[in-house]
Specification:
The protein has 359 residues and is of the alpha/beta class. The chain has eleven helices and 16 strands. The chain has helices spanning 12-25, 33-46, 57-67, 82-90, 109-115, 135-145, 196-206, 227-257, 286-298, 323-331, 343-358; strands spanning 2-3, 50-54, 73-76, 94-97, 120-126, 148-152, 160-161, 164-165, 172-176, 189-193, 210-212, 215-216, 272-273, 279-282, 301-302, 332-335. The protein has a seven-stranded mixed sheet, sandwiched between helices. It has a three-stranded antiparallel sheet with strand order 8-7-13, with no helix packed on it. A two-stranded parallel ribbon has the order 1-15. Helix 1 (12-25) runs antiparallel to helix 8, helix 2 (33-46) packs parallel to helix 8 and helix 8 crosses helix 11. The structure holds pyridoxal-5'-phosphate. Pyridoxal-5'-phosphate is lined by residues 56-58, 80-81, 83-84, 126, 152, 154-155, 176, 178, 189. Pyridoxal-5'-phosphate binds at residues 56-58, 80-81, 83-84, 126, 152, 154-155, 176, 178, 189.
């Protein structure tokens, strides 16, 4: 069976070494030494000023919204994972959808401007499949209208724009280190900011609002992550170069095998160094997508309709016109990609897709 993804697992012994050290210290969670070490190594690798390791990418979004004290309407993308929208609603704000650019699949800056009114407090864009939003245009709009910017960078580990980590953009960027992601800590996430005050606020928020063992400042939640999760991150960091290389090799192999398939692919923002974290293809119609899915599933291959459905169809949001998101979400599919996927698997998947097209 070939699934859309398979979590990277290092040799068990590498992980056990860290587990032994956790046993020796008897320090399992609450900002332990492995969590600190992982934060330092991630900041170093990604060349960031500040990063806080959290329980997951959803709590990262919730903490980001809370730390910026957002109230009112947040302009966001309907083409993302549900956590992007649900976090806005969870934090008592209103998601206002602006449609995507059909080429990049990221939120379209021109559509953002159309949605701004006196209740707008922020923009929340997703770097879809790791492809950066038009961060320069969004920064300009935010400065003009005095809006905060959050980027859901769940897919964007290792992505750079104009030589800098994409995590550096916006007031806050959030990451997911879920098992299905390029870099993972089993469950995990992070908030990244350049603002020292925001960092301190978010550090308190992730730890119930404590600013010392006996004192609290502001509302908090349990957003922490454990030593066991940090240990997985520390081991996986050692393999990140080979994980990233295998994704790129696989993407190039798909490109070659699928050259004659009538699908479109997202256009990567100029100036970006992409991480090849997913291999999305956009079919000419939902009908061909469904036929292709049926054929692949019949051969024990399970790609994913991702993102599907468009978040504009959620039953707890107001309706906005977002035709590109609604159309593309019906026609897009992510093909299998993970470190142990073999070249012959890619040939096989590609042959099946071409067979559906040519029959
Ligand atoms: C775009 C996007 N945002 C947020 C999340 C939520 O991250 P997590 O699963 O770590 O909570 C995901 C997870 O798949 C995602 O793809």
């Amino acid at each position: 069976m070939i699934n859309v993804t398979k979590p990277f697992l290092p040799e068990m012994e590498e992980y056990i070494e860290y587990v032994k050290s956790i046993w020796e210290r008897n320090w399992l969670t609450n900002n332990g030494p492995l969590v600190n070490d992982l934060e330092l190594k991630l900041k170093d690798y990604l060349e960031l000023d500040h990063l806080l390791f959290l329980g997951n990418g959803t709590i990262a979004l919730q903490i980001a919204i809370k730390a910026l004290k957002l109230k009112g309407e947040i302009i966001t993308t309907p083409f993302s994972y549900v956590a992007t929208t649900s976090s806005i609603v969870w934090e008592g704000c209103k998601p206002v959808f602006a449609d995507i650019d059909p080429k990049t699949l990221c939120i379209d800056p021109a559509k953002i401007e159309e949605r701004i009114n006196k209740n707008t407090c922020a923009i929340l864009g997703t770097h879809v499949y790791g492809n950066p939003c038009d961060v320069v245009a969004i920064e300009k709009i935010a400065a003009k209208h005095n809006l905060k910017v959050i980027y859901d960078a769940a897919h964007a580990f290792g992505v750079k724009y104009k030589g800098r980590s994409i995590f550096e953009y916006g007031d806050i960027s959030t990451a997911s280190f879920h098992s299905t992601k390029l870099f993972h800590t089993i469950e995990g996430g992070a908030v990244i900011t350049k603002d020292h005050d925001l960092l301190r606020t978010m550090a308190r928020m992730r730890n119930f609002g404590h600013n010392s063992p006996d004192t609290f400042e502001g509302v908090g939640i349990n957003g922490k992550n454990s030593e066991f999760h940090a240990a997985m991150g520390l081991v996986n960091m050692k393999h990140i170069a080979s994980i990233m290389k295998s994704r790129k090799d696989q993407a190039l192999a798909y490109d070659k095998c699928l050259a004659n398939l009538k699908v479109t692919r997202p256009v990567i923002l100029k100036g970006a160094e992409w991480n090849y974290s997913y291999y999305p293809i956009i079919f000419e119609s939902e009908e061909i997508l469904l036929k292709s899915l049926y054929e692949l599933n019949g051969n024990w291959i399970y790609p994913r309709r991702y993102f599907y459905p468009s978040l504009s169809s959620l039953n707890y949001v107001d309706k906005y016109e977002v035709p590109f998101s609604e159309d593309i979400s019906k026609r897009v599919m992510c093909l299998p990609m993970y470190h142990t996927l073999k070249e012959e698997d890619i040939y096989f998947i590609s042959r099946l897709l071409l067979r559906v097209q040519n029959n």
